């Protein structure tokens, strides 16, 4: 098989008509870190496609989709908004609005006797909002107040570290202190410290939360701090941006950026061939399509590009474990049954089919590039087969029989106590890949007597957290490992009527042992203790088989010849948008 690594590209027909428009780094180093050249900006337009339309610029403040990364909508904020710090390629976290990061040795990061924390942050002196108003510490204090209030925390589902961010106090225009109610070891990455334009939103916020949610600031009149400012938004079509020439890092290399919403991959491909869009970001086209296009353009010598980006997003099925909702009764609420259905799947064959062999089998939440992977590597296959749950139809049948499930005359398993047939449903996303994956699993399970129904979510159902959280069967998702052990597996993240169905532990997995490990990880600084906790987490999250892990996602980025810059980091491809270029 020919190499499937990097090089090809695509372009997409524009849906908008461009209107006439007038480890730590402190910002010294590569172009990706420091921003654009000081040379006079050149007029260049870059047209970028994503697969869905973002609902809001700030889902924490306003509420948003149950799938905040679906279709690549999470690429929007980085285009127009900067926070304190950001992770870039190679695992390097750079300073953005942060002029100085809190440091224990300098006394600017203090852990108090009651285990609360105070962190002193300094912001850069030349940052401005897109309307020209200077960014000050008051904007951060206001942002902390809004994002930490009970309504925002309900939107977050209780899983984010920001629940520990209690308040902030301005010292002067460029200095503020963030007060945390508990220890959060990763707080120096800028978690929760997203400024909000106090001069625009304070009066709206004081008028009531409903008024804030309805503000056009979050949709068509956004004012941010990032390298591009909003010019026009056309519902269902796209967003036009222009370069913010007063950007504190220096003007971006691209003068105009058109973000287009193209939900249908086939339409993307048809438009690509017309050559009117420059970049397709994940989640746009699948691996098969990208590989075929790569071959075509390589043969033509076009110079177009494809990057096959590996990420720690795990293609997985989250099992409904709450007996109140799980059906059939006495099936997936039992660990032996879950293990049996996992071992009934040839996951290596699934990997080869879905990722062209570019991904390894995912045995657990720890991606090989995860910073904590070295802590658990020796516990994983091939070094240790304990968590492999290899393809073994005979073992699967034995486990099912032991749990009381025997094939009936029609070839479908039946519960020997209740007579219930093993008919099961999985909720999956729109698009050819999720359905293809589910169809492959459907065939494997049919062979052992499970009748699988594949339900493709409508857009309304995808945005309905209550619907997904009260399903009877499994739900496809691609949560990252860091999100999983960062709180998604915690029982505090289980949605319920009391939380207005917010929270992303939608399978209702509940393990006191795992809850304890996750809580300790959030507040443990010592590396040896962290290693021990991650090893405990591996066991507590893998042995019960609450999720069916398949593979790590491969996300293609497609670019025409001459485009440079886009890379996938932490589910986002636009994190370094100020250095994107088109020659």
Biggest sheet, open or closed, and with what strands and sense? 10 strands, mixed
Question: What is the spatial order of strands in the main beta sheet?
Answer: 10-11-12-2-13-20-14-19-17-18
Instruction: Tell me the total number of β-strands.
Output: 22
Helical content band: 25-40%
What is the straight-line distance between the termini?
Answer: 32 Å
What's the number of structural domains?
3
The name of the CATH architecture of the largest domain is Roll
Q: CATH topology of the largest domain, anyone?
A: Dipeptide-binding Protein, domain 3
Taking pLDDT < 50 over at least 5 consecutive residues as the criterion, the unreliable ranges are: 1-30
Q: Structural class of the secondary structure composition? A: alpha+beta
Average pLDDT for all residues = 88
Strand content: 15-25%
| CATH secondary-structure class of the largest domain | Alpha Beta
Q: Let me know the CATH homologous superfamily of the largest domain.
A: Dipeptide-binding Protein, Domain 3
Signal peptide: 1-26
Organism: Handelsmanbacteria sp. (strain RIFCSPLOWO2_12_FULL_64_10)
GO molecular function: peptide transmembrane transporter activity
Domain Solute-binding protein family: 101-477
Describe the model.
- The chain has 19 helices and 22 strands.
- The protein is of the alpha+beta class and 583 residues long.
- 28% of the residues lie in helices and 20% in strands.
- A hairpin with a 5-residue loop joins β15 (405-407) and β16 (413-415).
- It has a ten-stranded mixed sheet, with helices on both faces. Strands 5, 6, 7, 8 and 9 form a five-stranded antiparallel sheet that branches.
- It is globular.
- The protein folds into three domains: 1-81 and 225-309 and 555-583, D-Maltodextrin-Binding Protein, domain 2 (3-Layer(aba) Sandwich), CATH 3.40.190; 98-212, Alpha-Beta Complex (Dipeptide-binding Protein, domain 1); 322-545, Dipeptide-binding Protein, domain 3 (Roll).
- This is Solute-binding protein family 5 domain-containing protein.
- Residues 101-477 form the Solute-binding protein family domain.
- Keywords: Signal, Transport.
- Belongs to the bacterial solute-binding protein 5 family.
């Amino acid at each position: 098989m020919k190499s499937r690594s990097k090089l090809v590209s695509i372009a997409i027909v524009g849906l908008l008509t461009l209107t006439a428009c007038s480890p730590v780094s402190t910002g010294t180093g590569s172009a990706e870190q420091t921003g654009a050249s000081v040379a006079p900006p050149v007029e260049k337009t870059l047209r970028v496609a994503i697969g869905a339309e973002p609902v809001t610029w700030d889902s924490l403040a306003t509420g948003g989709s149950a799938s905040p990364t679906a279709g690549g909508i999470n690429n929007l904020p980085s285009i127009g908004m900067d926070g304190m710090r950001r992770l870039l390629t190679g695992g390097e976290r750079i300073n953005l609005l942060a002029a100085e990061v809190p440091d224990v040795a300098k006394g600017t990061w203090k852990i108090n006797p009651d285990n609360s924390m105070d962190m002193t942050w300094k912001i850069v002196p030349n940052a401005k909002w897109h309307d020209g108003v200077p960014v000050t510490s008051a904007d951060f204090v206001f942002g902390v107040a809004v994002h930490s209030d009970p309504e925002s925390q309900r939107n977050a589902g209780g899983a984010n570290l920001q629940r520990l961010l209690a308040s902030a106090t301005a010292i002067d225009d460029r200095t503020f202190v963030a007060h945390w109610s508990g220890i959060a070891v990763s707080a120096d990455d800028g978690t929760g410290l997203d400024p909000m334009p106090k001069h625009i939103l304070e009066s709206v916020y004081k008028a009531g939360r409903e008024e804030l949610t309805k503000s056009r600031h979050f949709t068509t009149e956004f004012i941010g701090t990032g390298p591009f400012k909003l010019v026009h938004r056309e519902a269902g079509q796209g967003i036009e941006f222009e370069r913010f020439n007063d950007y504190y890092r220096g003007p971006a290399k691209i003068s105009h950026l058109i973000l287009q919403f193209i939900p249908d991959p086939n339409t993307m491909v048809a438009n690509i061939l017309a050559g009117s869009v420059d970049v397709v970001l994940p989640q746009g086209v699948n691996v098969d399509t990208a590989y075929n296009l790569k071959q075509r353009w390589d043969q033509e010598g076009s110079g177009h590009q494809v990057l096959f980006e590996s990420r720690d997003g795990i293609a997985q099925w989250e099992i409904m474990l709450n007996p109140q909702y799980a059906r059939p009764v006495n099936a997936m609420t039992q660990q032996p049954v879950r293990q049996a259905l996992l071992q009934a799947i040839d996951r290596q064959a699934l990997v080869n089919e879905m990722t062209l062999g570019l991904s390894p089998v995912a045995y657990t939440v720890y991606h090989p590039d995860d910073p904590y992977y070295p802590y658990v590597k020796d516990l994983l296959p091939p070094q240790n087969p304990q968590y492999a749950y290899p393809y073994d139809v005979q073992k699967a049948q034995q486990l099912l029989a032991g749990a009381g499930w025997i094939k009936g005359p029609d070839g479908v398993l039946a519960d020997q106590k209740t007579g219930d047939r093993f008919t099961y449903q999985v909720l999956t996303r729109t698009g050819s890949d999720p359905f293809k994956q589910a169809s492959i699993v459907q065939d494997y399970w049919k062979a052992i007597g499970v009748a699988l129904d594949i339900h493709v979510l409508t857009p309304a159902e995808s945005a309905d957290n209550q619907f997904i959280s009260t399903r009877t069967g499994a739900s496809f998702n691609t949560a990252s490992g860091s999100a999983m052990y960062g709180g998604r597996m915690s029982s505090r993240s289980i949605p319920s009527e009391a939380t207005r169905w917010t929270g992303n532990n939608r399978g209702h997995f509940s393990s006191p042992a795992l809850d304890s490990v996750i809580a300790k990880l959030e507040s443990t600084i010592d590396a040896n203790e962290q290693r021990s906790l991650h090893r405990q987490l591996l066991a507590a999250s893998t042995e019960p088989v609450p999720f069916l892990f398949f593979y790590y996602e491969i996300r293609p980025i497609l670019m025409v010849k001459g485009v440079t810059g886009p890379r996938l980091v932490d589910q986002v491809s636009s994190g370094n948008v100020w250095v994107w270029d088109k020659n």
